[in-house]
Every structure is written in C-alpha cells, then in structure tokens.
Amino acid sequence: GEHPGEPNLADPGLVSDPFGGYGAIREHGAVTRGRYFDGTPVWLVTRFDDVLTVLNDRRFANDPLSVPGQETDTTAAYAAEALGLPEQFVPYLLGNLLRKDPPDHTRLRRLVSRAFTVRRVSELRPRVELIAEDLLDRLPDHAEDGVVDLIEHFAYPLPITVICELVGIPEQDRPRWREWGAALVSLRPEPFADAIRAIVEHVHALVLERRAAPTGDLLSGLVRARDEDDRLTDTELVTMVLTLVLAGHETTAHLIGNGVEALLAHPDQRAALQADPGLLPDAVHELMRRCGPVHLTRLRYATEDVELAGTLVRRGDVVQPVLVAANSDPRRYSAPDRLDLSRERGGHGEGHLGFGHGAHYCLGAALARQEGEVAFGSLLRRYPDLSPAVPPEKLARVPVPGSWRLTSLPVRL
Ligand code: HEM
C-alpha cells in the first residue's frame, strides 16, 4: 500500500476527509507515527481492537505528569504560548476529568457520576421531550423562503438547554456559553483566551450565588461538596462546571446535526425509522458509529514501555486513539461504510467507540443518547416530510481536527 508519510492531525486532507484519510492509515499498519496538531510526535492507533486495548490499559495515562520522570506538561506550555492564555487560567483548562488519572480522576468523577446514570437520566426524559417539542413548534417561525437551519434552531438549543438546566446555568447566560464553546473549539488564540477568562469569571459569580442561596441543581451540590466536605478545590469546581457545560452541548448538538443529515441522505433507513420508532435506540448507536461528532480521544501517555500490536511504545510516548477509524474498521464491521440502523451490535453494548471506553468513557453518554433519541424521534414525527434544502456537496463542516460538525443544515419542513 501507499505509505501515508507522517500525517499531522491538522493536515487539510485528514480534516476534510477523516474517513478516507484515517482509513488509509489504518490499512497501512496497526500503529503509525504521526504528529499532533501542535507538532508533538504521536502514535496513531486506528484499529478497533487496538483502540479498545489502549483505552482499557491503565499503563496509558491521561495526565502527562503521570509518566515517571516527566516534569513538564507540554500541553500546558502550548496552552500558555500558542493560545496566549495567561498563566493563572491554565489550571482551569488542564484540570478537567479528561486530563486526570487516579486518585484525582476517581474522586472528581464520583462527585458528578450519580447525576448522569441511566436511571437519573431517564427521569429527565419528559423534560427533554418538552424542550424538543417547544423548539419544533417554533421552527416554522425561523423559516426564510421555507428553509430553516436545523443546527441553529434545533440541534444547538436542545442540548444546551438540557445541560444548563441540569447544571444550573441561568437562561439569560446560555447564548454566551454557545459563543464561548465556539471560540474554544476554534483554537484561535485571542477568542480562546477571552472565552476562558469570561467563563471562569461567570462561573465564579454563580458559585457565590449558590453559596448564598442553594437550589436543587448540580452546581449547588458541587458547592456543598466544596464547602462542607472539602472534596474539591475552588479551581476544580469551576473546571467541573466548565467541562460539563461545554462537553454537554457542543458534541450532542453535532450528533443531532450529523444524524439528521445522514437520515435525510438515506431515505430507506429514514423510512424504516419513521415506520418503527422502536428502532430509535439502535438508530442512535449506528448514527454514533457512522457519524459521531468526536473523531479523536484525548491523548494518552505511556507510563512504561508497552508493546502495542507489534510496535514498542516507549515510556513517555504519546498515543492518539482514532475513534473514527476504529468505528469503520472492516476487521470489526461488515460493510463498515454502510449506514444500517438495524446492524447487529454483536453483544458489545453500543457496538462502537464513539463515546470512548474504560475509565474515561463519556460521562454524559446516557444523556446524549437520550437527547438523540428524542431529537430524531420527535423531529421525524412532527415533520414527516422533512427534506434537505441544499444538495449534500453544499454542506460545509467546521475545519477542526478531531471533530465532525456541520456549520449549518438547511432543510424544508
Ligand atoms: C468523555 C464523546 C456528550 C461529558 C468523552 C469521551 C468521548 C466523548 C469520546 C472520552 C474521551 C477520551 O477518552 O479521551 C461524547 C459524544 C457526545 C458526548 C460523542 C455526544 C454525542 C457528553 C455529554 C456530557 C459529556 C452530554 C455531559 C455531561 C463528558 C465528560 C467526559 C466525557 C465529563 C470525561 C469523562 C472522564 O474523563 O472521566 N465524551 N460525549 N459528554 N464526556 Fe462526552
């Protein structure tokens, strides 16, 4: 086969065609040298079984400082230098769950995990349905010449409303979170630093409010854990809120956007789903596999020498699991490029790695799946004749490595 060179995650070819690009890398070899977009050398792991192995293996850490002998966090230096983030804000960026290992990871995750169990999430379902119905009621008001942007008026507002209600972000502040989220995803220095600064200030103010007058929201619970039990620091508290709100809306919005796009492009699958809403849970699994919004996990760091699929990964080496390649690995799936809502999942739960796996498995997976089910189900029920307003080749995606996001999705109701 053709040697893919030493791909950089920011290569325009990989960003615009991750399925083809990472697919070629996967077929070239199990473990391939590449570069993270800041230039750091990484091992790209692309096959389903190998990605699963890395995500399950505690020898691959999420905090670079967990590597024995490692004293500097190059990602912290990158944040400060390339993104122009003032020193005092760096901890808010680096202190999130995805950059922690035990015991901190275990302690922090335990503080919030109860709010996101399948049972607690199912109690939210009626509220999620109501929010969706309300947005769907108002869709025609946003139509111009019969065309509505579903990203703007449905895919975004649904998850941001849900996660903000759950955490306790007041309604009037939610549009700012959406802008901050976009600024962070863009990785452009000035907007990035401004957004972090604004978020930290905003969350600090909310913490003071809840401290004075607690409510039943998640934020009040975190303030109590801080003040009464000393189970997290002020910085960790702010970081947790920031992580939950940002991780909880951007991603889910684009599962909804990508999923609706895929259903519109596959009339037979869409018809099957419209005929049998019982297919919704399976449909969400398959849409996550085929067009999930997160293509790359956070980096992992080898804490000792590890042999991985025949390659010696040395202590301190950086590993990048590639979810999009694993989710279309022909070793794992027959006809992997086909969207098949009733695909056999082979007794493996979700049957894909779009929410990651292991200790850092997506905290919000049950919530995201439920929002997906409600979104696809209610949209197709309310607007059974929904159709694309532009041909597929006219749809644009946000050019950011590792994420798969439509800039807009114009439809006719
Ligand atoms: C972790 C994807 C929705 C919160 C992850 C990971 C993935 C992921 C792949 C693991 C990354 C890694 O191991 O490096 C997604 C997708 C979503 C989604 C595709 C929507 C379709 C949500 C929601 C929340 C959330 C709604 C709200 C709470 C988190 C958190 C983590 C995480 C806090 C870190 C967990 C840890 O490190 O222990 N997500 N996510 N996600 N997700 Fe999600």
Automatic annotation (TrEMBL):
GO molecular function list: heme binding; iron ion binding; monooxygenase activity; oxidoreductase activity, acting on paired donors, with incorporation or reduction of molecular oxygen
Annotated transmembrane regions: none
Keyword tags: Heme, Iron, Metal-binding, Monooxygenase, Oxidoreductase
Signal sequence region: none
Source superkingdom: Bacteria
Gene3D superfamilies given in the database record: Cytochrome P450
Keyword Iron: yes
Keyword tRNA-binding: no
Family note: Belongs to the cytochrome P450 family.
Designated name of the protein: Cytochrome P450
